[in-house]
Every structure is written in structure tokens, then in C-alpha cells.
Amino acid sequence: MTLKLTIRQAEALYNVFRDIVNQDPAPDVTESLLKDLLKQVFRKLESKLEARLKGGGYSISLTDMEAKAYYLYFNQRYLGEGWRYEQTFINDQVRLLNKLYA
Known about the structure:
single chain; mainly alpha; two-stranded antiparallel sheet; 66% helix; globular
């Protein structure tokens, strides 16, 4: 599964990971496992942004497990008022993942 991201989306998703996903402690073992998998996604995203690629080079490939963890973590999760742009494109990605795995 490939998350197709523009530079703006990649930077916004990086901020979501940095400010929300990586900061909130996992309330249970299930979410702890999801966050472990999402850390791998964060590292891929971080390396893309550090490379400062030109054009459409900000998409990241996810393993089957990473894609499912992304879906489970963000499905029906509300990020808050200050995250509308991020919430919109994450919801779009979650819908695509649901079609892929349903």
C-alpha cells in the first residue's frame, strides 16, 4: 500500500505524528502495538522529508501490517479543531484502506 502524499500533506502528517501520535501514551497493549507499527511509518515519512525530494516523491510505501495499523489508529479518531486539513486527508486515506482490506 502506498500513501500518496504531496509535500504539504507529508509535512502535515509529520506534525500529526510528532504532536499527537508520538506524544499520547498508549492506554493499553493494543494501542501500544499500533503505535510501535506507526513509529515505522513515522520513520519512513521522516526520511522522505529529510531528503527534500522534488516533485511527487513524498509518497511512502507501507507494509500490510503498517497500513492496517494506520487504519486502526486513525479510523474514527478525531484530531481536534486545529487539525482540519490533516483530518480530511487522513479520513480519505482511511476510506481507501477500508476499501482495500474490506
